[in-house]
Automatic annotation (TrEMBL):
This is Cellulose synthase/poly-beta-1,6-N-acetylglucosamine synthase-like glycosyltransferase. InterPro entries: Glyco_hydro/deAcase_b/a-brl, NODB_dom, Nucleotide-diphossugar_trans. GO terms for biological process: carbohydrate metabolic process. Belongs to the glycosyltransferase 2 family. It comes from Kitasatospora cineracea. GO terms for molecular function: glycosyltransferase activity; hydrolase activity, acting on carbon-nitrogen (but not peptide) bonds. Residues 91-279 form the NodB homology domain. PANTHER family: POLY-BETA-1,6-N-ACETYL-D-GLUCOSAMINE SYNTHASE. SUPFAM superfamilies: Glycoside hydrolase/deacetylase, Nucleotide-diphospho-sugar transferases. The chain crosses the membrane at residues 318-341, 603-631, 637-657.
Amino acid sequence: MSRHQRRRQSLLRPRRLAAPPLRFFMPLSLLACLLVLLVLRGLATNEVFHDTRIAQSVDKTTVPEDLLKGGPVIDARDKKAEPVSYRIPDKTVVLSFDDGPSPEWTPKILKVLEDHQIRADFFVTGSMTTRNPDLIRKIVADGHEIGLHTFTHPDLAYQSHARISWELAQTQLALAGVAGVHSSLFRPPYSSDASAMDDWNYPVIKYVGSHGYLTAFIDRDTDDWKRPGVEEIVKAALPAKPGAGELILLHDAGGDRSETVEALEQIIVKLQGEGYRFTTISDALGAPSAMVPVHGYQLWAGKVFIWASKVAVVTLPVLVALLALVGFLNFGRFALMVVLAPVHARRSRKQGAWGEPVTEPVTVLVPAYNERECIANTLNSLAASDYPIEVIVIDDGSTDGTADIVEEMDLPFVRLIRKVNGGKPSALNAGVAAAAHDIVVMMDGDTVFEPSTVRELVQPFADPKIGAVAGNAKVGNRDSLIGAWQHIEYVLGHNLDRRMYDVLNVIPTIPGAVGAFRREALREVGGMSDDTLAEDTDITMAVLSAGWRIVYAERARAWTEAPASLQQLWSQRYRWSYGSMQAMWKHRRAVTARGPAGRFGRIGLPLVVMFGVVAPLLAPLVDLFLLYGVLFGDTPITLASWGGFILLQSALSWYAFRLDREKPWHLISLPLQQVVYRQLMYIVLLQSTITAFTGGRLRWQKLRRTGEVAAAPVEG
């Protein structure tokens, strides 16, 4: 057997449903992984957890006087003793650079330091470290010292101990991942000299010290971030007292640092001319380097974090492109519906649009398998029909007494065929073979018709080019929340779609609950097929490809009992989506065919794939970005954008309800329906896709019915 034949059999043969826990695990895990990637990308770009608040100076009643008047380096590591401070020795300068590394300015600063053979301290943020690993490695390789400046650069006076610990640990993780080191040096964001400590930030210094960090404040603040001019930066860097040691603050990131680079050269030349030596903080204090190599778990955890962050940065443009595709498909579908649905509505209102009224009797086929709760309601609704019909109930090996109920009802227009269980397609084929009339109406055993349904359904057959007609399937049990959601889906997602597809002459599915065929069209395509689990979609595509026209009769209403739980809904939609994929695959050659099949293959099939598979499969990205935007982004703009989308969806839904002559009060549940349904359809479609490509087995699952739809609902 060829690989092509094996692939075809893999996609078309019956399959078994995945184990319940696994059906949700993989799709939801994928969404969770994508959300983690978004968060990692947000961390790398300093969008996640970003806090721009800056504390104002308060009283200093808790800060020891000797610290306020002491040196810039504070050691609070001994929990049993008071913190102590250290000064930079005379004639010694430590250059320190905050907020980097920057791919634009850090290399220029490193070049100046290298030219003068000077070592310095770089207080880096975790987000910049994650984005610029090569620069961190160069800083270490050139002998400079690295200190921590937090991950997201918040004012720690506003942060909890847990947040402070996270900021430090995450930055250490980034350092381990890019350079294999940790550092015990720390500088708080927005800090100044030691005299600026107050009752808010002093507890931060003690807490950080208790975790093993030396805190490095400064002696001289150049304010280079304000871009005051090269001369002012140089002036601010020079010692207030000749010969005194100093720790100078500069910046290598956060904006245009061209003045800093130019001033750095002059600062070095001037101070070297005055006999100063340049070194690192640890060396100036006569202490071992603040940087220590890491090994084992810490090293590999850091590498995994950096690798995942890189993947996240690369993945985001892909996710944004897919989100744009979802938007394009949804708005494109909205536009087609708005333009084409009114065309169909105007045509439907035309009297005698199809020619002379059709009055010849027709055959109604009711395939039934274990429908004891519903079959009487179905037949009673047909008994009230205002059109001449014969009804054939094909009992497909029921084990619950369905056939006995039909016999007991003893309706004169009903014939009963008993057969061994062979599936719905074989039952329908048996009914077609026994039908006495040329037009065959098909309905499900859990569906009820209105008195006018059959008459409205068969009128288009006045046009000899029409081979099949799709009716208007509606949800009968719509009073529960899940029923209301399906009611919205049927009106908007099925019936409004059918109006659009009708005008384009590419209706892909005649609903099994209410549809009609010419026997000639059925014979031409070989009857109902059991190649797929969506025999209604399969036969519709076959009839279209054979050159017959298919139309939608909106007034031919049928009321069906929809699944009453999410579990049952999932089972039904899984079968529908998987069966539809089978049908698309089966008719894939229509894309390159000529004539009517080619028209369907190049217009209808792509639309079904884009609107029925791709868009719902990618739709959870909307909710993913919504969640990310609310938690980490601009919440008002995010919610406003989502609200705009819901308003557009609501407007289209209201229009669809108006066309279907439905009361719109069920639309109150639309926002929640959109969120829940997107996830459910995503799970269904992803699982169906995986099943299709892995060759899993999926079997037909009979839904549990209650028979609560006894007649067409009447809304007050």
